[in-house]
Amino acid sequence: MLTRCTTFRLYPTPAQAHQLLEGRRLHGYLYNAALAKRRDRYQHWGINVDYLAQQNCISN
Questions:
Q1: What is the distance of C-alpha 57 from the center of its chain?
Q2: Which helix (H) or strand (E) holds 33?
Q3: pLDDT of residue 42 exceeding 60
Q4: Is the distance from CB of 49 to CB of 38 less than 8 angstroms?
Q5: What confidence score (pLDDT) does residue 53 get?
Q6: Is 1 exposed, middle or buried (0-12, 13-18, 19+ CB in 10 A)?
Q7: Rounded to two decimals, what is the model's pTM?
Q8: Which end of the chain, N or C, is less surrounded by CB atoms within 10 Å?
Q9: Sign, Cα dihedral of 42, 48, 51, 56
Q10: Is the pLDDT of residue 7 over 80?
Q11: Which helix (H) or strand (E) covers residue 58, if one does?
Q12: Burial letters for 15-37: b for 16+ Cβ neighbours within 10 Å, e otherwise?
């Protein structure tokens, strides 16, 4: 099977650039919150939280 990679260059307007940066910021907050939840539940109760359990909590 052959895999190809295509790269696109974006030239966003200032408003679009702001929206892209805001999305990256929110993604960082979500990632850090999920990581903190996994770490805290394991440290306090010894319970492993898997990806599927966290994914189901977020989709609501």
A1: 14
A2: helix 14-45
A3: yes
A4: yes
A5: 86
A6: exposed
A7: 0.71
A8: N
A9: negative
A10: yes
A11: helix 51-58
A12: eeeeeeeeeeeeeeeeeeebeee
